[in-house]
Amino acid sequence: MAKYNKIEVISTMKETGIVPVFYHKDVNVAKKVLKACYDGGIRAFEFTNRGDFAQEVFGELVKYANAELPGMIVGVGSVVDPATAALYIQLGANFVVGPLFNPAIAPICNRRLIPYCPGCGSVSEVGAAQEAGCDLCKVFPGDVLGPAFVKGLRAPMPWSQIMVTGGVKPTEENLSGWFKAGVTCVGMGSNLFPKEAIASGEWGKITKLCKSALEIIKKVK
Questions:
Q1: Which of 135, 67, 58, 118 is nearest to 89 (CA)?
Q2: How far apart are CA 140 and CA 143, in angstroms?
Q3: What gap in Å lies between CA 48 and CA 63, rounded to an integer?
Q4: Tens digit of each residue's pLDDT (9 = 90 or more) over 91-138
Q5: Cβ proximity of 120 and 101 under 8 Å
Q6: Residue 144 neighbours by CB distance under 10 Å
Q7: Which residues contact 63 (CB under 8 A, 6 or more apart)?
Q8: Sign, CA torsion 62/64/65/66
C-alpha cells in the first residue's frame, strides 16, 4: 500500500523539481543509489520496471525507504499495462509512470489516490490523460519534443502540470530551458548515474550530482 497520497507526491515533485529514474538488478546497489540520492536532497525516486524480477527489487527498495529514509517517496516507471500497475501498487508504489498513455491504468491508480504520470507526445494525448484524471503528465521523449513543445502546450492549457523525461541534463543551460518552458519537474536518468560511479561504488559522486542539480533547479525556477 502506498505511504503517500497523490497530493503529497505531486507536491514533493513540484517542490524539489527532479525525479531520478533508475534501474539495477542488484537490490544492494539499488539501495546504495537510493541512499545517495536521499543524501543529495532527493525526495521522489522512480525505479523502472525494466528487468527480470524487477518487482522483487522494487519491493525491497520500498521497505528500505520506509524504514530508513524518512520522506523518500518511491514510485515505479516503465509501466505500460494495468496488471503491472496493480502489481507494483501492491508492493507499495507511491506513483506510477509510463512511457505511453494507457487509459486502463488510470482507474486503478485513481482508486487508490496514486498519481499516474503517463508518457504523452502530443497535445491531444495530454488532454486525454488529464480527462482520465492524470494530474501530472510526462512529456516523452523530451529530447525529441524539446522545451518548445512544453511552452506551446501550456499556452492554451496553462493548468497543465508537466514532467519531462529524456534528454534532461544536470546543467544550468538544459534545466533552465525546461523550467522556463513551464515544466513542473524533470525526470533524469543516466546523467545522474555515471556507469563508472555505479561500478566502483562511488556513491558520493551521485550525491554531489543530485545536490548540484537541485541547486541549479532552485536557481532557474
A1: 58
A2: 8
A3: 16
A4: 999 999 999 999 999 999 999 999 999 999 999 999 999 999 999 999
A5: yes
A6: 11
A7: 92
A8: positive
Cell 507494483 found at: 88
Nearest to 94 by CA among 189, 1, 188: 1
pTM (predicted TM-score): 0.97
Q: Are the CB atoms for 48 and 79 separated by under 8 Å?
A: no
Quote the distance between the C-alpha of residue 40 and its chain's center: 16
pLDDT one-digit tens code per residue, 56-77:
999 999 999 999 999 999 999 9
